[in-house]
Automatic annotation (TrEMBL):
Pfam families: SnoaL_2 (PF12680)
Domain SnoaL-like per the UniProt entry, residue ranges: 25-123
Lineage of origin: Bacteria, Bacillati, Actinomycetota, Actinomycetes, Micrococcales
Protein name listed in UniProt: SnoaL-like domain-containing protein
Taxonomic superkingdom: Bacteria
Organism: Cellulomonas biazotea
Listed InterPro entries: NTF2-like_dom_sf, SnoaL-like
Coiled-coil features, chain-numbered ranges: none
Length: 135
């Protein structure tokens, strides 16, 4: 194999990993926006860690309690403002809109995802601008 072919083969491998990571991030947002808990959980490894604020959830059973009917009752939606993707990591700036006590609220959110070789999220960290409290 020529040096150029070896470089291109390596680039293809890296590009494939980045595409897999981007698909995982975009599918997470799409499942969230569909309010589809089963679809959302299918995008996580069984032992995934999800941190939001001071709260940390480990495993899909714990995540099922996060992405539940109570959350969906707020009619949340995410809009991707920017997305930076590496081979197994993604960083996104999102706009989250939800309805609480009849009032539409909007937050800027930063999320950092680690994705495994199968394209599943193994770790996520979420940071919301301002307070995460809705009261």
């Amino acid at each position: 194999m020529s040096d150029v072919a070896a470089i291109l083969t390596g680039m293809d491998r890296h590009d494939g990993a980045r595409q897999r990571t981007e698909r995982a991030a975009r599918e997470h947002v799409a499942a969230f926006n569909a309010h589809d808990t089963a679809r959302l959980l299918a995008g996580f490894t069984a032992d995934a860690r999800w941190a939001t604020g001071q709260d940390v959830f480990v495993g899909t059973a714990a995540l099922a309690d996060v992405f539940d009917a109570g959350l969906w009752a707020l009619d949340p939606a995410l809009e991707v403002l920017s997305l930076v993707v590496g081979e197994d990591r993604a960083a996104a700036e999102l706009r989250e809109t939800l309805t609480f006590d009849g009032e539409v609220r909007t937050f800027t959110v930063a999320v950092f995802l680690d994705v495994d070789g199968d394209g599943l999220i193994r770790r996520g960290r979420v940071y919301r601008e301002g307070s995460a409290d809705l009261d």
